[in-house]
Design brief:
By secondary structure, the protein is an alpha/beta fold. The protein folds into 2 domains: about 100 residues, Orthogonal Bundle (Arc Repressor Mutant, subunit A); about 200 residues, D-Maltodextrin-Binding Protein, domain 2, CATH 3.40.190.290. It is built from 14 helices and 13 strands. The strands form 4 sheets. Strands 3, 4, 5, 6, 10, 11 and 13 form a 7-stranded mixed beta sheet that branches. Strand 1 and strand 2 form a beta hairpin. This is LysR family transcriptional regulator. Pfam families: HTH_1 (PF00126), LysR_substrate (PF03466). Belongs to the LysR transcriptional regulatory family. Keywords: DNA-binding, Transcription, Transcription regulation.
């Protein structure tokens, strides 16, 4: 091959692609696909426009836009009516499947929404479940008597797991720490109280108990991971003391309360749980110096997920109960 011929071949301009090939296909809108199917079923663009409640010129423009977007002639328009071309018939077959799938998607979404509106699954820590949620649920049921509410009771550490996994729509916790990143909203406040039976030496103290003695004395305690235990350990840490020492660890507030009344040892419990016992003399509240035992009670749900439906309503009910005094705020 001569040098001049090779140069001529190299310098020859590349072929210009056709205008049709250069235009990308445009995704058709759903109403245009519905229009195409109506033209196929009714044999008339005018009647298809009537069915969609649009003017015939508007339907004609929409059909033309669909044809340009796909680069195909889909409909033959004649004085006798409109009929699909072979390409139009193929596209209409695909369109029918797309719209059928869309209808199924919408029907499935509606079923899910109806289920969400008819059912509420709640996870809550023990103290909230025993002393506060019954009032909140009663209020919500008064507003929505058809609503089914399921409640899982566990400690504060496990509530976020149930919510994040989808086993609960919303959770309520009393602990200061979250093991997972969650959206939260305070619904109330609570205060822990050091309590002892009337025969315990602490019941006769004339001066407040020191934080250090509280940390050094074995106590009847809730299990690790409970909101009560987390709050106590955090308060002692902020007071530069060691964590609470367990004499006995029990899995429920009622069990701890019963053990203290029986004289097993002192404890730290929610004021909600022991208010009646203190008033009736079964337990004695012990003042403690230098320890803040207040805590927030919070609703939790997954980050990035909007709280809607009955779950949002229950959180609103809980906050309203705090505002009008049915839930304590310190």
């Amino acid at each position: 091959m001569s040098r001049s011929y090779a140069s001529a071949v190299t310098e020859r301009p590349a072929p210009v692609p056709s205008r049709t090939a250069a235009l990308p296909l445009r995704t058709p809108d759903l109403e245009s696909l519905r229009l195409l199917l109506l033209v196929a079923d009714l044999g008339s663009l005018g009647r298809a426009a009537e069915r969609l409640r649009i003017s015939q010129p508007s339907a004609s423009r929409r059909l033309s836009t669909l044809e340009r977007g796909l680069g195909l002639v889909l409909v033959d328009r004649t004085r006798r009516g409109s009929r699909l071309t072979l390409a139009g018939q193929v596209v209409a077959g695909h369109a029918r499947r797309v719209l059928d799938e869309l209808d199924e998607l919408l029907a499935g979404a509606e079923r899910l929404r109806a289920r969400r509106e008819a059912e509420l699954r709640v996870a809550a820590s023990l103290t909230i479940a025993e002393y506060l949620l019954p009032v909140w649920i009663s209020e919500l049921r008064g507003r929505r008597p058809e609503l089914y509410i399921g409640l899982q009771v566990t400690n504060s550490e496990h509530v976020p797991e149930l919510v994040e996994s989808g086993e609960a729509d919303v959770g309520f916790i009393e602990g200061p720490h979250l093991a997972r990143v969650m959206s939260t909203r305070q619904v109330a406040e609570d205060r822990l109280v050091v309590v002892a039976d009337p025969g315990h030496p602490w019941a006769r103290l004339r001066e407040p108990l020191s934080a250090r003695e509280l940390s050094r004395t074995p106590l009847v305690l809730r299990e690790s991971g409970s909101g009560t235990r987390q709050t106590l350990d955090r308060a002692l840490h902020l007071a530069d003391c060691d964590r609470a020492r367990p004499l006995v660890e029990l899995g429920s507030t009622a069990a701890v309360r019963g053990a203290v009344i029986a004289g097993t040892g002192p404890s730290v419990l929610s004021e909600l749980a022991v208010r009646g016992d203190i008033a009736e003399g079964r337990l004695v509240a012990v003042d403690v110096a230098g320890v803040d035992l207040t805590r927030e009670l919070r609703a939790v749900w997954p980050t990035g997920r909007r709280l809607v439906g009955p779950a949002a309503e229950l959180v609103a009910v809980a906050r309203e109960a705090t505002t009008d005094g049915r839930t304590p705020r310190r």
